[in-house]
Amino acid sequence: MTIASNRRQFLSQSGVSLGTLALNSLLHGAEDRQTIQHLPGKAKRIIYLFMHGGPSQLDLFDHKPDLRNYHGSELPASVRGDQRLTGMTSGQASFPVTSSLYSFSRHGQSGAWVSEVLPETAGIVDDICIIPSMHTEAINHDPALTLFQTGHQQPGRPSFGAWTSYGLGAENQNLPAFVVLLSNGSAARPTDPLYARLWGSGFLPSNHQGVAFRSGSDPVLYLSNSPGIDVATRRDQLDVLAALNTQRAAATRDPEIETRITQYEMAFRMQSSVPDLVSMNDESAATFDAYGPESRQPGTFARHCLLARRMAERGVRFIQLYHRGWDQHYNLPSDLRLQARDVDRPAAALIRDLKQRGMLEETLVIWGGEFGRTTYTQGKLELTNYGRDHHGRCFTMWLAGGGIKPGIVYGQTDDFCYNIAQNPVHVHDLNATLLHQLGVDHTRLTYRFQGRDYRLTDVHGNVVTSILS
Questions:
Q1: pTM of this prediction?
Q2: Is the dihedral of CA 276, 278, 279, 280 positive or negative?
Q3: What percentage of the chain carries pLDDT values higher than 90?
């Protein structure tokens, strides 16, 4: 008896026909395409460029030339106030003010200040909105990153991408709604860990979790068929597995079983869609040149920026790029220059590429990290070397596209770049604004779990209307 006849016999005996399975698949696809959009959204998708470790705003965007007059002197206690410090500097006897070793210049019609280490970003200042007044109460990497990605410092809640997938569904049924790409920076300092829960679905159905793409020949684990298994055999296996799962779902009413059926079907469709996505054979030499020579090397941030544009073209809803190595507690002048070189050209190329293709208006791009760095030096201040500790009271991020006003700087810090002087933007405010641009009211995108309604912005957050076009 052949595999096909065995399959038909099993399906017949189980009372589940191929037509029923096909209908189930279509119904699941329809569920994935349903949205709970509350208002007209200007953005269809998000590309999130996350600089893991905390980029130094003082050395990149927030120009404070007057700090040179205080360089080496003690940071006034009135400025530092009662801030909770990390264990890495709380025991320091001195907190010497440290101005940046880098030079800054004004750029574009906006006249925004940008550091010398970001020359390509300087060329797109009229396309981006710079926010130097971001703030967070988290002072260590994992809670700060978890707050950004899930709306809470403690693990266990759904990630931003999962909420987006849950709320808006997928545009392309052959690719995940939420994809994650990780790259390591060039800094000498070892990178801090990233955990899969940062792109997890938490208590949402598991089909909304992010799919991490790898840089090797097999971008998604276990997606390729094993030796000796062809497409027809895989299809037969999945039909039998779907019949078993459908029977079990009918008996237990467990929604996760239905989710599992959907995920198996998605994996099957991805066997043909992913190779086409990651292949760069149709990209021109000019495109590679624009993103930089590293864009030809799998696993680099440049390659991932180009891949993000290809995903955006194919309707991936939420594309998360993590670039690691931004935790400059020491050797900041040398290491930060290396980190900036990794991301400057490809991030700027991504904005230009989306713009010239007419995609920037509907693609919201975010650049930034989980917090900033201190005005004072961690450890000993040397003539040409210094480090900075974590600083959540003020730091810089930038946004582009998706209905965000271009060419503006929103917010201001004090003369020491230590506290916010004007227009503070909290993490929850940022997330509320990003959801708003996707057409989602952050107060209404909720999920009931263990007796209460949860949302990405917890019980906080206000849309920053001043930066919307």
A1: 0.88
A2: positive
A3: 75
